[in-house]
Amino acid sequence: MPIEISGLLHVAVVTRDIDRMTAFYRELFRASVVKELRLTTPVFGAGVGVPGARARTVHLRIPGADTVVELTMYDRHRATGDERAPANTPGLRHLALRTTDIEAAEAELRAWGAEIVGGPVVVDEPAAARGTRFLYVRDPEGNLVELIQPPPSS
Q1: pLDDT at 34 over 60
Q2: What is the pLDDT of residue 154?
Q3: What share of the chain is helix, strand, coil (3-state, %, to 5)?
Q4: What Å distances lie between residue 141 and 22, 52, 84, 106, CA to CA?
């Protein structure tokens, strides 16, 4: 029997520098801090499968979104693989944020010194996505963020 799901609450991004990442999402995407927590109890470590884990977390609300971006900085990290993996690497790969002006977004990203990976481009095929404009950028820790401007009829 399928599990009853009623929504997507948050997307978690583990970070080495929570203050820098919070500033990036707040300043560039007007995200607001809705919650900050210190996670220090044994229950937290048991729940995430890392006994003894301790962390600081910041929940950010992107304007117009119900889902929260959860930034978490653990007291100890475990490095695995390529943290700056390209978009075609298997696994959770990017956050997608809607914008109304991709050119203005690109200009702001460039002024901020953000690394634009690709775009902006205008989709011509498939027909269902025609006119969509998007670009990919890396946040300060190399995570991919896609900015999408839907076509005027969307």
Answers
A1: yes
A2: 52
A3: 20, 35, 45
A4: 11, 25, 8, 19
CA distance 144 to 117: 8
User: Which region among 43-52, 58-67, 89-98, 128-137 has the lowest average model confidence (pLDDT)?
Assistant: 89-98
What is the token pair recorded at 139? 């946040």
Count of other CB atoms within 10 angstroms of residue 71 = 27
Digit-coded pLDDT (tens) for 46-59: 999 989 999 999 99
pLDDT for 5 equals 81
Q: Which residue is associated with the tokens 């200009």?
A: 107
Q: Which of 105, 102, 106 is nearest to 150 (CA)?
A: 102
Model pTM score: 0.86
CA distance 51 to 118: 39
102-112 and 18-29 helices, crossing angle to 10°: 140
For residues 53 and 41, is the Cβ–Cβ distance under 8 A?
A: no
Taking a C-beta distance cutoff of 8 angstroms, is the pair 10, 68 a contact? yes
Per-residue tokens: 33:
């801090």
